[in-house]
């Protein structure tokens, strides 16, 4: 059986590595070697980042102040495309939904690696994006997620050029759209671009995080309906408002599995009712009420079980109240091709990211440990069986809130970390 297994592996240049990585003995296969940083071209690239530090922060601020709500990323997309053109990347494309990508060609014989940062933010048009600077802290909606990582990725490509760094494999810079509304840009790009990357890196979390998993995420919207009635005629009448109240109360009473360990502040599995609505006037029974559920867990079995429980609970509340009921499901992602947890964790991609993240982490901060989570563009790669990891270049706080902030000085070491990772992955 053992020798059979070898023949069953796909005949890619990664076949042998996958086999090695699957064995616990070789769990620490990393392609990152600190001696890499002694090479003259790498030193030159790194030094060029130091020299441009204040310019990088100024450009980052300008990017933050360029609005990019999901689906309306065109201005930012155009800017990034222009910078890719200046860099002379090959096959620069803006696709039909505004994903922008370009390739920095390698010398040949190495893997093709995608570095993806998303253009969009969760903040709607009209949000005040003016960056406030307090010492080393930059405050503005979207300053961290994902603009700091977008800026760091762009600068990493520039630094490779300034150092004259050559890689064996191709590096693809993907600036994706609509990440915040279901990873739609990365999904579209991976499914339709024609590229078949060997490795996928999403730069979309904090610099102390290395994520190798993919959360199962299901988003549901439930509706309750009735003919409606004036308040004066409503006593005892079926009420979509009551159905909604009963449903939400019952949903939060669904027994949840124990909280998964080792995920920092995340407590999973979890369900959240994020939006509620309905009714048009104060003096009538609403014709319709609705609410949303965002359900997240770490594996498909748990997710499927909880999703069934959520739908059954919401339906029961409608039946009990005698109102109409319907549910809309935002299509989830099919994870049937995802690799096993052990295979994902032990893949040299994840181990290399982990080694580089720890090498560049701030002195005196705790060792970075990998987590089997993910809600970034890397999820799409995971679902397609492509080795993937989500990392971050900077220290950021309170993403998705108006109070979002990030450390200005963190971006320089972050860019160096990305650069060493890109070189390690494409040239091992
Ligand atoms: Zn993000």
What are its keywords?
428 residues; alpha+beta; Aminopeptidase; Alpha-Beta Plaits; 2 domains; six-stranded mixed sheet; five-stranded antiparallel sheet; 13 helices; elongated; disordered N terminus; binds zinc ion
- Secondary structure class reads alpha+beta
Q: What is the CATH class of the largest domain?
A: Alpha Beta
Rounded radius of gyration (Å): 24 Å
Number of domains: 2
Task: Give the strand content.
Answer: 15-25%
| Overall 3D form | elongated
Specify the oligomeric state: single chain
What order do the helices and strands come in, and which of them pair?
Blueprint: H1 2-8, H2 15-22, H3 40-51, H4 53-64, H5 74-87, E1 90-94, E2 100-104, E3 113-118, E4 132-134, E5 137-139, H6 147-163, E6 171-176, H7 184-192, E7 199-203, E8 210-211, E9 216-225, E10 229-230, H8 240-251, E11 270-272, E12 276-278, E13 284-285, E14 288-297, H9 300-321, E15 324-330, H10 341-346, H11 348-360, E16 370-371, H12 378-383, E17 388-391, E18 396-397, E19 405-407, H13 411-427
Parallel strand pairs: 3-6, 3-7, 7-17, 8-16
Antiparallel strand pairs: 1-2, 2-6, 4-5, 5-19, 9-14, 9-15, 10-13, 11-14, 12-14, 18-19
This protein binds zinc ion (ZN).
Zinc ion (ZN) binds next to loops.
